[in-house]
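Q&A log
Question type: sequence-to-structure
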Amino acid sequence: MTDNLRGILAVLIGSTAFAFNDAIVKLVSAELPSGEIIVIRGAIATVMLATVSIAIGAVRPLSSLMTPIMLLRIVSAAAATTCIVLSLRYMPLPTVTTAMQVTPLAVTAGAAIVFGEKVGWRRWLATLAGFLGVVLIVKPGTQAFGAAAYLALTALLFTTMRDLATRGLDRDMPSIFVAAATAAAITLSGFVVAPFDAPWTVPSWWALGWLTVCGVCLFVANIFMVVALRTGEIAVVAPFRYAPVPLTVWLGYWWWGDVLDSTAFLGIGLVVAAGLYTLHRERSTLRNRAQGVAKRSPAQ
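Response status: OK
Response body:
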C-alpha cells in the first residue's frame, strides 16, 4: 500500500470519528456548558492516548513539545476545538460542518505555498467539486448568526494552521504522542473557556455516557488524522475529508429530524465522485511511475 493510500484510509477513519464526535457534542450541549464538555471528553481521550503512548514506548521528553512547529500544532488544535464546540452550541450542525469542509481547500493551497507540493488542475477541480457537493448537501442559509459565525470562521483558520503544522512535524515524532499532547492541551482549553461560560453542573449518567463515546471518538480521530496528514500528499488525501459529510446529514435526520431532498442527494453524489476520481488519479499516477521505472531499467 502506498503512502497516499494509507493517508486516504487514515483520513476516512479520522474524519468519520470527528463527525460522530461533533454530533454528540451538539447533543450533550443541551445539558452541559461548553467548557465542561471540552474538559470531560478531553480528559477521557488524553488518558487513553497517554496510556497507549506509554505502553508502546512512544513517549518523548517534554522538551520536544517546545519546538515552534509543535507548539503551533498544539495551540492551533486547542483553539480550533474550542471554537468548534462553542459554534456547535449556537449554530446548526450542517452549517458548522460546511465551514469546516473548506479546510481541505485551504490546506491544499497552504501545502502548495508552504511545502511546495505540486497540485494539478484536475485535483483542484476534484476538491472544488467535493466542496460544491457539501454545499448542496447542507444548503447553508444566508441569515446572520452573529458572533457564532465568527467562531466558525476562526475555527476554520485554526484548523488549517493545525493541519499544516502537523505536516511539518519531525518524522521521528510518534503520531500517537502528538495526539496525546494535543488532547491534553485541548482539555486545558476547557478551563480557559469556563469563566466565560455557564456554571458547571454535575453531569447525568446519560451525558457522561455520551461524553465517554466522545472521548473514544477523539482517541481514534486524533491518531488517524495525525497519521493522515503526515502520510502521502495533502492534495490527494485532503479531498477524502468530505466523505463523512453524508454521515453527518444522516445523523442530523436521526437526531434532529432533518430531511434530505433531491439537491442533497446530488451533493452526496458529487462528494463520492470527487473522492473516487482523486483515487483514480492516484492509481493512474502510480501506474505511470511504475511504467517509467520499468522503461528505464536495464534489460535482464
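Response note: The chain is about 75% helix and 0% strand.
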